[in-house]
Specification:
16 helices; 0% strand; globular
């Protein structure tokens, strides 16, 4: 396959997944901001979202203060923000158009219709009238795009590069989404006092604080379609340590870091002709650490520190994939 074709397919899927995950992050922040809390706490939550998305400087260059309305407008429909939902859907459609002949008619029409429909919705004011419903629509279009891709594309390198892009982006965004919650706590997270330790230790979370925090953890679980999954797996009250474990280490949770890296490694192996390549070895090592990791060990060093390192390594992996497969080789 031509490297430029692989590049378009890879980034088409990444941008569609990024649009979905941006919608998920915005939705959890939007729902959390509606809970009873101080104005300062609300602003801190939105500022955390911008910081983790690395968009705070760009935002402050355009707006004087951080408000839910301005942040959502900036991350949904600002054409000058390359990470906005509108920009991501446009980039996905343009990448699809560049390799129209490689895609099935169903995949192309799905991408094109999504682009046309999002423009209509934003111009008609549907987003402002019901942000939650708009975010659900973005998620649905992303689900539809993946389903049509898997259901109609030939199982060859084209599909493998598309899947690789989807799950590499998902790993990055899930890590950022988890970090949004802990950033809002304004400290690093080292686990609850009794987690992974003997019951003789003193200290417990006040009941009022537990009740208050329940809504925040419920929101983040719902943002990754994980609320019912959590109940099925743990059959217990929502605890931060178990939420972290579910979204980081569980291979059977579709949006977890472990599940995402499983898919990246599997598809990378299918397109790699060198089983000893540094790219495949780097991806395999990162996957192995998730496969054999323990949540108490991760929390012992601090969850924010772990997620920051993970994001750096995923970024390095993306660069390796780009250099090995996606950049045109000089003659």
């Amino acid at each position: 396959m031509l490297s430029r074709t692989a590049d378009h397919l890879f980034w088409m899927s990444r941008y569609m997944e990024r649009a979905e995950n941006t919608a998920r992050m915005l939705n959890v922040s939007y729902e959390t901001s509606l809970l009873p809390q101080s104005a300062a706490a609300v602003e801190a939550g939105w500022e955390g979202l911008l910081s983790i998305s690395e968009l705070l400087p760009s935002y402050l260059a355009l707006y004087k203060s951080i408000t839910p309305r301005d942040v959502m407008a900036f991350m949904v429909k600002n054409e000058n923000n390359p990470s906005s939902i509108l920009s991501c859907l446009r980039a996905a459609r343009e990448n699809a158009r560049a390799v129209r002949g490689t895609l099935t008619t169903e995949v192309w029409e799905t991408q094109n219709q999504t682009w046309l429909e999002v423009n209509r919705m934003l111009k008609s004011g549907e987003f402002e009238r019901d942000p939650g419903q708009f975010f659900e629509w973005v998620k649905f279009r992303s689900h539809l795009s993946r389903g049509v891709t898997v259901g109609t594309m030939l199982m060859d390198e084209s599909l493998y590069f598309m899947r690789m892009g989807t799950f590499l982006e998902r790993a990055d965004n899930t890590a950022r989404l988890v970090d949004v919650k802990f950033h809002a706590m304004q400290n690093d997270f080292f686990g609850a006092p009794n987690f992974g330790a003997s019951q003789t230790q003193e200290g417990s979370v006040p009941e009022v604080a537990q009740e208050y925090d329940f809504y925040h953890w419920s929101a983040i679980l719902r943002s990754v379609s994980g609320f019912e999954v959590y109940r099925k797996v743990y059959r217990d009250v929502i605890r931060p340590e178990r939420v972290a474990e579910l979204l980081i280490l569980r291979p059977d949770m579709p949006r977890s870091l472990h599940a995402s890296l499983n898919e990246v490694v599997a598809n990378l192996a299918l397109v790699s002709h060198d089983r000893e390549s540094d790219t495949l070895r780097h991806a395999g090592r990162l996957r192995a650490e998730l496969a054999f990791g323990r949540i108490d060990e991760i929390l012992a060093t601090g969850l924010h520190a772990y997620l920051t390192q993970f994001l750096e390594r995923v970024n390095v992996l993306g660069g390796r994939i780009s250099r090995e497969f996606l950049m045109p080789q000089s003659a």
